[in-house]
Predict the structure of Bifunctional protein FolD.
Amino acid sequence: MSAKRIDGKAFAADVRAQVATHVARLKEESGLTPGLAVVLVGEDPASQVYVKNKGIQTREVGMNSFEHKLDAATSEADLLALIARLNADPTVHGILVQLPLPGHLDSDLVINAIDPAKDVDGFHISNVGLLGTGQKAMVPCTPLGCLMMLRDHLGSLSGLDAVVVGRSNIVGKPMAQLLLAESCTVTIAHSRTKNLAEVCKRADILVAAVGRPEMIPGDWVKPGATVIDVGINRIERDGKMKLVGDVDFASAVEVAGAITPVPGGVGPMTIACLLANTLTACCRAHGLAEPE
Ligand code: NDP
């Protein structure tokens, strides 16, 4: 039987609509408009597209979008000075520095210069520590989106075997922390994992965040498992460019219980969660009730 497709596009539209409703209420009741500042250094084409989409969606939910486009040769001192200004600006509730940064800039230094309360990407070491110790954190957007889809589909995740393939700081590790906090039994796999197929086959929840086109075939998937495919890989097939995930959708869909497609799965949820985090940051900054 073919798996249920988890529709990230529709889910993300719901999340954005809820954020927009909350933003409208904030404006009416408190005169507040949440603001998101996005900093782009250089002209990486994929980053330019992401930043443009973030700006459009931020304005669509009624928030202020502040876009700062800096030259690729911008010095670290100038970038840090901009971040200090944004940290001090009361109209800015969220700050996102688009990664990757050009090679002469130290990403860790730059990210850790952001006020943790405005770190809507959840990459600051304070937020990483808060998440790891089960305290109130800013949670990285992509894993947060994955968790929302998992909860929506499965309800309680308690006791389930979860396998996360990939251990990056932006997806794999925070995803594993979130699943652990949901009382899953979590395995993190990576490029040195032995018998990856066997490890994946144990998973009730399989999250793939690798960046290798279609590397996980259907026969690595436990029958009935919920598969979340974070991978976004651009490949050429039949003379056309195409986006595919890290999971071989065609074979996995025959085995899984539910699966996210690529495109239209995890991707749209990421920006929706960024907007939700910005709203949360605004509410926290003003001591107001946070959105559910
Ligand atoms: P990274 O390159 O930072 O991490 C990839 C991880 O995959 C590493 O931990 C690596 O292991 C592991 N890996 C590589 N090869 C293998 C292998 N053969 N077997 C098992 N594990 C392997 O990538 P990201 O986490 O940043 O991104 C992963 C994917 O998710 C990419 O396709 C990216 O485009 C996508 N992405 C999608 C987002 C969205 O909004 N949907 C947002 C962010 C990312 P090791 O650590 O040992 O090297």
Q: What stands out?
A: The pocket of NDP is lined by residues 142, 165-168, 170-172, 189-193, 196, 209-212, 230-233, 266-267, 270 (CB under 6 Å).
